[in-house]
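#help-structures

NK: newbie question. if I give both the sequence and a SMILES, will the prediction place the ligand too? trying with adenosine-5'-triphosphate
OV: yes, paste both and it writes out the complex. here, I ran yours:
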Amino acid sequence: MATAQTSLPLPVLPEGWSAPSDFKAIGVLSTPNQRNLEPVGPHFLAHARRKRHKRTFSEDER
Amino acid sequence: MTVEENNGVDPEETLAIGISFGNSNSGIAYTTAEGKAEVIANEEGDRQIPSILSYIGGEEFHGTQAKAQLVRNSQNTVAYFRDYIGKEFESIDPTPCHASAHPQKHDSTVSFSIQDVGADSPHDVSVSEITTRHIRRLASSASDYLGKKVNATVITVPTNFSDAQKEALSKSASSAGVDLLQVIPEPVSAVLAYDARPESKISDKLVVVADFGGTRSDVAVIASRGGMYSILSTAHDYSLGGAQLDNVLIDHFAKEFLKKNKSSSDPRSSPRGLAKLRLEAEATKRALSIGATASLSVESLSDGLDFSSTINRTRYEMLASKVFASFTKLIEEAVRKAELDVLDINEVILSGGTSHTPRIAANLSSLFPPTTTVLSPSTSATAINPSDLAARGAAIQASLIQEFEKEDIEQSSHPMVTVTPHLSRAIGVLVVSENVEKGVFRPLAEAETGVPLRRAGEFAVPRDGGDVIIKICEGISHIKVSKPPAKPKGEKKTNGKAASDDEDDLSDEDESEDEPEDVREKAWKVGNVLAETTIKGVKKGGKVEISVTVNADLTVLVTAREVGGKAGNGVRGRLEKPQVTENGSA
Ligand SMILES: Nc1ncnc2c1ncn2[C@@H]1O[C@H](COP(=O)(O)OP(=O)(O)OP(=O)(O)O)[C@@H](O)[C@H]1O
Ligand SMILES: [Mg+2]
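OV: that's the protein plus ligand as structure tokens.
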């Protein structure tokens, strides 16, 4: 997919912000919904191939 | 999918086509060597082939020729049978067949009593056998056209076709010498038909597929995420379709006829008169989708009297306004069931024969905001013929899987592979301010995206560049309602005024006279903050690329880097998966 472009600027880093390796893990995802992906189309077939072979995105890249 | 590895060494030589199989019509399509889906016209030149078989004088008629037999040979003509496949007699609605061979109980299924080829009296022919004959005719038309034997297919059916029905359909197909590789939902096939066009850009969007057919109408709300599709809701109406519009015209013309021929009997009171009127009214209705007026003429309509008349589109739209409103209502119902608002819908795909009707599309254009694309012949120059959509999508799917082993197709369609956690909230980035009250949420991954997923975006930085904070948050979409800027009080809204209003160009003025409506717009609320990170020393006018990956186990990987920056200036971090109670919905 095309990379989305955002023209509004990222905020300035607040004074005194610091974290090991510059990364703070703060929360976790909200509980997801279990749903059915329709087994149709080229993108699903790529998903199914990855899932069945337990591959990640980068391992799957050609 | 990817480039074919010239392995034309298949011993079986599978040639698969797509079939859309409706109660009213069927379509056949194939995918060209260039990957383009094309609908095939049968020997009679029809691309919409009536799903009808008729027997007369020891001969089988199919399609349009069989449909013509509804006038003189209705009891030996089998029509509108698709929904009966794989069902018990007790659970079917026989209404659509009142003017053709009647469905009846037959063991655990449905049959029709007809005198077919080689029979010298009427006998029971099961709906499975009728389906086999229909598929055989469709496959044979496709084989003739392609010059090669078609031996496999992908067929589209409604979203609520049961497993038993799919099983029965598969058996009927193999009895016709056609291997049913996969059964796919009609609305998903329609979305695929659009996405498979070379000019299409895959994006994240919410799509309403409105399939308005002959005897029924079905709507599905689909989350389309990176070319993968999840059905969020469906709505069905089994007494709404083109037949209801035909009825409006039948009643109109029957009354006109009786006005001219005061002493004649009502043409609707004889089965033959009604059947003739029905066939011609349908043709008139189709003509009204293109022209401003259309005519109807029937020889010997009633008491031997011929009849001809014309009707203009305005009149038709007035007479049918109630039926038209029902199509809109069905869409509203599906959107509501998905707990969404019309403002959330990015695209409306109009599918099915009745979707050619300009008024239906116009009504939808006013139901949805101007930002929603309504894909129909009268609202979009690039729309695909709505009658072709399901067959085209099926042809694409057929070409994707025809080389696969049967087992691979089955495994890929198994819930182990298809049932997947979908984000319940969007994941995005705060821009402008890092204060969750003041910042603006910009989504990277939308809610209802299945995992694993990866989305990336490029973000501007403050004018002088420098150190920026990247705050990854969840976003909750909601509808913000506000009063419009104060204006002198208008009159109270008068309902029902628009219904009697014939002129298109008046309706806009009508609205502006009404009390100003509340302004409704889509807005984001910031939910959980997931992570914070930073990129330091971004150059003036620079950009930061941020990506979010949600793995299958729901751990999250965040990366950020300055676009074009030095290698190694980026950051990456990981989030643990949420603590889910194991007995949660699965
Ligand atoms: N150009 C047109 N304008 C208006 N209506 C049309 C047009 N073309 C076809 N129709 C109507 O579309 C209906 C058939 O639609 P379609 O072929 O999608 O049905 P189907 O899915 O086979 O039927 P069903 O809903 O009975 O399962 C008929 O009522 C037909 O008159
Ligand atoms: Mg249909």
